[in-house]
Amino acid sequence: MNLAQNLSGSSLIENCIRELWDIVKGLLDAKILVHQGATVYYQESEIEYQMHINLGPSYSRASVIEKKIHSYMLRTVCIRDVIDVWGFGIIRNENLKELGIIQLEKDVATISFGEMLRKVESELVVLTIRKKLPVELRDKLITIHFSKNARVIDDVKETYFEVALDYANLWLTSFNSFNVKNIIFNLNLEIPEESIEYCIPEPLKKEIRMAARAILNGSRKAVNFLNIISKGFLTFEKEEMVNALQRMIHVEPPDRVEIVNIIPRMEAYEIAEIGYPITLPGRVTTHFRTNIDAREVTLRGKIILDLNIFRQIIRDIVNKIEGEARRLKII
Amino acid sequence: MNSTTLPSWILERYISPWVLPKEKIIGWVKWQPHVKFNHLIIRTEADVELYRLLNVNERIFNTHQPSSGLFKITSDDIQVKGFVGFEACYNAIPESERELGFVIEFVFDDQRREEVELVTEVIRPIISIKQATREIASTKEKPSPEVINILLENVGRGDGRDLSSYIETVKGKDLQIRIEPFEEPYDLEQRLFVKSNKMVGSKIIINGVGYGMIQLGFEYKDRIGNHYKTPVTEIIVNIEEGKRIEVPIRSGIKGAGSVLSLEPILA
User: Fold this and answer.
1) How buried is residue B23: exposed, middle or buried, by Cβ count under 10 Å (0-12/13-18/19+)?
2) Which residue of chain A comes nearest to B14, CA vs CA?
3) Is the CB of residue A274 less than 8 Å away from at least one CB of chain B?
4) pTM for this prediction
5) Would you call A213 an interface residue with chain B, using a CB distance cutoff of 8 Å?
6) B10-122 topology per CATH
7) Which of A91, A96, B24, B215 is 20 to 30 A removed from A76 (C-alpha atoms)?
8) With contact defined as beta carbons under 8 Å apart, do A78 and A63 qualify?
9) What are the structural domain ranges in chain B?
10) pLDDT in tens, A111-148
11) Which ipTM value was assigned to this complex?
């Protein structure tokens, strides 16, 4: 069974792989393709094919390979929708691009196997082609699900994800290796304004209410106080906060799920009744990345947020705000 | 959940642990590839759409109704031995949270059968209205009606959002009762920080004199936009003074529960 047979019937798939498959088939027929691997970059919706081509000793190519290989392969073959193409010889490290064997113009790659046979002295060539993978095709091959509703148990917010590959026969029989990389999930922790209020001690809330009303009477001190609150909460976006937030996120399995980044974001709020603008921590966006090997076929994991740690982070900010306001004798 | 004893040759079974109605469910079973069976049957319940089979020849779909809740897959239709999976969704909105089962039954040549059960939980927000007696009364002795507090509580595990109120029925021939939207600033004593100082809500407007009753309910959504309604609550209306009465409905689901204030005022 091969790539084209497995996926026959879908014009989308045929259009994507037809030119590549013609090359692979030609190399297989000539018995010089010794390894083929593929990596799908999920987020980018791209696929990278890697072929290891055994050219054998240069003196025997004319008698051995050129008789086996299809004549069209000896001319220049084109592949469309290519993002990049590169290749080198092993062990002499010839660069196929510099030798003019492979070229990329806009998104069309051209490969001359005839030139390869003539110019490369190494016995083995590694050729890599990275091309666009239509999203519809990607989704046909890889299905993922990230829970839409996290579960809260006590002070822990928990969500899960699943990845499963379809057409496992294709990956397992057509390629020596097949991986899916850069499967990225986003998790938004929305911070309701009530949860910020919950972390503010009652005496400080009273001071904020008094300051808000004093602003209406033109109090400069009150404006300064509310500015200290805004500035204090702005530290939520600082780099060091990311480390603190990292402590509240646990992933399972830890060796398979990587936290790519944590982005704390502020949101514009108003002080109730008077409508005075203030910025408060609004959300934490976390990107997670995972990869899957075709042999695994499936992957499942969990993301757990410890809300106690989050509240402690907000309380620490509030304590600093209170300290600063006292230092400046504003409250 | 997943309570059945597994045959020893089953390596793994998995299903999405919980889902909202209409959310994607992924499930799979892995077994030792050398185990030979004749065919397997995937069975599920009514209202489940099984819309994709993983690692199974596509022609299976052409011979089955996705909504039939039953798929028969011969051993030869499994693309790589040792794995079968599916994608499905529960298309109904259940009245309460419930378990949802899938059974993968392996049938061997000697008619022996082994089952693997997969159970997920369909969760949802369930906002209930508590508190029994409610009355909007404006009498000669006491013209200003009292505040009615209704406790709203989400007893489901799904997040509830976008709460809005509606009147289902009005009884009282001499009363004109309707719901109108309103906008007013928040009160600093109730809230410290707000997204916008304009509180957008709705209010019940009552005109006329008489005795009647309204049935008030709330609509809300879950995180994927499924619509829900609370059961309605009955509010008695007793107006002796012929003035317009406005009853702002201050609502919002905060955490698991929320006190909903109905503060009638004489306009």
Assistant:
1) buried
2) A300
3) yes
4) 0.86
5) yes
6) Immunoglobulin-like (2.60.40)
7) A91
8) no
9) 10-122, 127-254
10) 999 899 999 999 999 999 999 998 988 998 899 999 98
11) 0.83
